[in-house]
Prior knowledge:
This protein starts with a helix and ends with a helix. It is 26% helix and 11% strand.
Amino acid sequence: MRSTRRAASSVALACLMLSGCSVSLGTGSASGSQSPVGGASGTAAPAGGTSGPIAVGAGPQKHYTVQQQPAAGSCHYRYERGEPIEDPKCTPGAISPAVTQGNLQSTICRKGGYTSGIRPSAYVTGKEKRLNAASYGYTGRMGDAEYDHLISLQLGGDPNDYRNLWVEPADPGHRSGSGVNNKKDPVETKLHTAVCKGQVTLAAAQKAIVTDWTTALTTLHLG
Length: 223
């Protein structure tokens, strides 16, 4: 037993002297590197997927700061029905604590609009977009890609949580240089309308778009 402990201690000591090394000793681990992703709270990105509850972000801020993004090349687009879909491990979605089912009429369903007053500045999102493009390996024209809130602001998505933002490529067949124009935006608008009319709950709309925005409307029987 003593020799085993001495061996484990020697391995741990050697590990700590080397960059990027990690070792499990049964009761814990030593690591020379941290997660490549840090959000507003500095926590690591969740494993992704849609089985658990959606993460809650920091919500609207008076002053937004540039958020760290996933490591370059660590995120991978998927395609459903020809449309680009986010990587759930990098972009699982995050909701704003400021929007709830009980305050819809004073937030996202408020007359006169809600989203314009909570958007991060272009200075912040411009830097984040370039970093996130590297995360996803996006090499197309930046002007044709949208730095998209997976759960849109009009559906109570968090404004600047890295888990809720991704560089969304243009739709297939999109003419290069013609600017942002994708099929996800109309889906978001229809979901927003349905939520404000009481046809679906806020949580149901958020869950549907996180699961697969291309099927969100049919999943909720909205056409």
